[in-house]
Amino acid sequence: MTITWLPGMDRYKRSDTRVPRFLIITADDFGLHESVNEAVEAATREGVLTAASLMIGAPAAADAIRRARALPRLRVGLHLVLADGVAMLPHDSIPGLTDDRGYMDSRMVSKGVQFVASRRIRRELEAEIRAQFSAFAATGLALDHVNVHKHFHMHPTLLSMILRIGGEYGLASVRVPAEPSWFAARQSGWSARIGAAAWKPMTALMKRRLDAREIFHNDTIFGIAASGAMDERTLLEIVARLPPGVTEIYLHPAVQRQALTATMSHYRHADELAALQSAGLLAAISAAHVGRGGFSDARQAAEATRGRRSNY
After folding, report:
1. How far is the C-alpha of 154 from the C-alpha of 175, rounded, in Å?
2. Does any domain span residue 6?
3. Lower CB count within 10 Å: N or C terminus of the chain?
4. Shortest CA distance to 67 belongs to which of 54, 86, 84?
5. Is residue 300 a part of any domain in this protein?
């Protein structure tokens, strides 16, 4: 298993067993609904949550920002929404991306083709990305990380835009959706395992591009194959098999059991919140002796490790 190499660390072998493990536990869709925001606050104060990804243009974003300011231990990143959500900019500014309600649909394959083929669509996309980064910057919150709703930043063109525009707003860390195939198979069978394997070349390319730009990233992620079903049993199994390097676990907690959106009809939001507040999970994480925090904390831990090794 690789770790995220920072400048100056390349002389160390990736198989070095002294590499510390670091765990980031993130709630996505922060700001989508007050039920999500309440869960994020509870799981931060009374559970193991360390980070949240903010939908800056979502209906309950203002409430999320208010709560985040009162949670100094919570690391907050930007959850860019470029599909299956409402845009920041009005429809007449980005007519190729939205319908007349300002909604961006979830037809990601066709959109991905447009991002390559249409210069006009790329201009609109850049404008929307910039608007979301600008809105996050206006909150005054420190930008811990950036990821994209439905992992759309696996698209090379989209990733290029995010890195270029994000650089103007202090972008330092990006999520890489690299999930182990064993976890995908355990959750959804061999078809999911094959799908996870098919993603590996894309996530490997993402890591190389981020490393070239000296952008920090996780090595491993958990949450894709069990999206909306990250219960206590699942989290305990992950912690028991936690690999070296930086691991991110992401969930979609909420205090209500009802689906928050049509695309989340099968999500067990309240069960995920209960898992985050589990005393058994906290004990398992403590026993694992891993670093904990957000991406900024993981980056600092990696830099400290590099500094110690440079003195050997």
Report:
1. 10
2. no
3. C
4. 54
5. yes
Domain with 128, as residue range(s), is 21-310
Which among 256, 283, 250 has a CA at the least distance from the CA of 271?
Answer: 256
The per-residue pLDDT string of the chain (312 residues; one tens digit each, 9 = 90 and over) reads 233 333 333 322 333 333 479 999 999 999 999 999 999 999 999 999 999 999 999 999 999 999 999 999 999 999 999 988 999 999 999 999 989 998 988 777 777 777 777 889 899 999 999 999 999 999 999 999 999 998 888 889 999 999 999 999 999 999 999 999 888 777 665 555 656 667 889 999 999 999 999 999 999 999 999 999 999 999 999 999 999 999 999 999 999 887 788 778 889 999 999 999 999 999 999 999 999 999 999 999 998 877 665 555
CATH number of the domain enclosing 111: 3.20.20.370
Q: How deeply is 99 buried, as exposed, middle or buried, from its count of CB atoms within 10 A (0-12, 13-18, 19+)?
A: exposed
Q: What share of the chain is helix, strand, coil (3-state, %, to 5)?
A: 50, 15, 35
Q: Which run of H or of E encompasses 3?
A: none
Q: Which of 161, 148, 131, 143 is nearest to 57 (CA)?
A: 131
Give the single-character DSSP code of 52. E
Is residue 64 within 8 Å of 48, Cβ to Cβ? Answer: no
What is the number of structural domains in the chain? Answer: 1
pTM above 0.85, yes or no: yes
Residue 294 lies in a domain: yes
Tokens of 274: 């209960």
254 in Cβ contact with 35 (< 8 Å): yes
In a domain, 85, yes or no: yes
What angle is formed at CA 207 by the lines to CA 227 and CA 213, rounded to 5 degrees?
130
What is the SS3 assignment for 251?
Answer: strand
CA distance 159 to 5: 20
